[in-house]
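Sanity check

After download, print the first record. It should look like this:
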Amino acid sequence: MYEPGELFAPFALHYIIDQLTGVQGDTKTEYGKPVHQKLSPWFRYPTRDGEGGLTSGLIRTWVNDLEAGRLPPHDAEGTRRRKPSPKTIRNVHGLLSGICRSAVERNPPRHLDLP
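Expected structure tokens:
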């Protein structure tokens, strides 16, 4: 369950490893890579009011930054990364959408992939 103030990366990885259904272990490991490379360097908290919280404006900035190949604001390495393709941006956006849904879900069974 989401804890107020929890950092984005641990929350997102918990979602992928412990809550995501319909995918196997190797795929879950692969889903962790964009969390570290393309999400957590931009986002600090999954849901939070005020500074550091995810907003639609922040997500639009993130998409524009990825598309332009700009450095993320919270990148400890400060190294330029290769600009992702539009398909990669769409895929990571879908992952972000699932992570966000898990943080604020109002109808828990609605988006569950069943075996």
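If your output differs, re-run the checksum step. Summary of this record's structure: The longest helix spans residues 86-104.
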